[in-house]
Design goal:
By secondary structure, this protein is α+β, with helices and mostly antiparallel strands. It is 42% helix and 21% strand. Helix 4 packs antiparallel against helix 6 (126-141).
């Protein structure tokens, strides 16, 4: 069995507590101590983004349909997400992290891994650094977070989940202590064990991480295959060799829209899709990479979901290319029933298309550069004057 991570390495996992809801309660004193749900209203389609801990006592959780949340707690305060405000607070949180280490891997707007190994002599041990971060976040931002301190990323993540909210958990750094800590935990605490894998483990009477530690390798392989068995066995003994990733970027960019009522008017669907693609194109330009693949998603009234994707002739971030792809993919789909959700995204993002051979009929490089410059100018106008300040006319030729 591979040795656990060296005690010389110290990782933190910091997870903000009910981040969106906590910001709303901080900024609106009347909401404090009350069940707050950030997400779609309970009388509309949509889901919960975040629920305050007061709301969680009613069984409300993220990704739950808002209508179900409203039934569970009719007195809950439902608020629409305010992403620009949440992002601004997130920037303040990450600025606090960077006081203590440059090795910060953001996982989302409200959580991150930190490697503080090189900061121990300056700020003290891992627990001391974690306390400093918690105190800074509480005193400067009036928010709370939960932190795990451990010799690797997997264990640090377990620690941050151990005592929420406003918790601090220091896991063992010695191998016997790590194994003992993991033994009673359910197998679902291991990365890669979802509902289907858990059911397979249940059938094999493997319920805890200790059961996996004791299981013969052949039994694990019969349940999850050789690769899965090796991966989960390493985690069951607390081994995780991953380092901090300093440039974690999105692998795809997408937007979706769920209609309040099922929609079958194609012109309304076309207009919605056009606006979604506008936003995807803007985000792609801000990202700076090029998309090699476009992807359309349609969910029907009966919740059946259909996806279509196709490679662009060459990687692109020009909005006209994205609009043409989305229109072509959607035109191929007959409207057999009303649409509940429509979405568009781009994937296979690359830094450059220099290796791709130019097509004889492709736009000249200078023309593509001018179009990209024009679109960036439009982005700046919208940032300064609002998204409706200037709009692109829907003048695409039929695909």
């Amino acid at each position: 069995m591979p040795a656990a991570a060296s005690p010389r390495r110290v990782f933190l996992h910091v997870d903000m507590d009910a981040f969106y809801a906590a910001i709303e309660q901080r900024d609106h004193p009347d909401y404090r101590g009350k069940p707050v749900v950030v997400g779609a209203p309970p009388d509309q389609r949509g889901v919960v983004a975040t629920a305050s801990y007061e709301a969680r006592t009613f069984g409300i959780h993220s990704a739950m349909p808002s209508r179900d949340a409203g039934r569970r707690c009719p007195s809950a305060i439902f608020l629409p997400p305010d992403m620009p405000r949440y992002k601004a607070v997130s920037d303040q949180v990450f600025a606090i992290f960077e006081r203590y280490t440059p090795f910060v891997e953001g996982l989302s707007i409200d959580e991150a891994f930190l490697d503080v190994t090189g900061s121990l002599r300056l700020f003290g041990g891992g627990e001391e650094i974690a306390r400093r971060i918690r105190n800074d976040i509480r005193s400067e931002l009036s928010l709370t977070c939960s932190i795990g301190v451990a010799p690797n990323k997997f264990l640090a993540k377990l620690g941050s989940e151990y005592r929420k909210p406003d918790g601090l958990t220091v896991l063992p750094f010695d191998r016997p202590g790590i194994i003992a800590f993991l033994r009673p935990l359910p197998v679902t605490r291991l990365w890669g064990v979802g509902k289907v894998t858990r059911q397979a483990f249940d059938r094999a009477a493997l319920h805890t991480i200790g059961d996996l530690q004791d299981a013969p390798p052949a039994l694990l392989e019969s349940v999850v295959g050789p690769h899965g068995a090796a991966h989960l066995r390493r985690l069951a003994f607390g081994d995780d060799p991953r380092e901090i990733e300093l440039d974690v970027r999105e692998k795809s960019i997408s937007r979706e829209h769920t209609f309040l009522r099922d929609e079958r008017a194609r012109h309304l669907l076309d207009n919605t899709l056009f606006e979604l693609v506008e936003d995807v194109a803007r985000r792609l330009r801000a990202d700076g990479r090029l998309a090699a693949t476009g992807r359309l998603k349609v969910r029907w009234k009966d919740f059946t979901t259909l996806t279509r994707q196709r490679a662009f002739p060459r990687p692109t971030r020009i909005e006209e290319d994205l609009q043409a792809m989305a229109a072509a993919l959607f035109k191929e789909i007959p409207l057999e029933q009303p649409v509940r959700l429509i979405g568009f995204g781009v994937a296979d993002l690359v830094e450059s298309d220099a290796s791709r051979q130019l097509d004889l009929f492709d736009l000249p490089v200078e023309t593509r550069a001018r179009r990209e410059q024009l679109e960036r100018t439009l982005d700046r106008i919208r940032e300064e004057h609002g998204p409706a300040a200037i709009r692109r006319a829907r003048t695409l030729p039929p695909p």
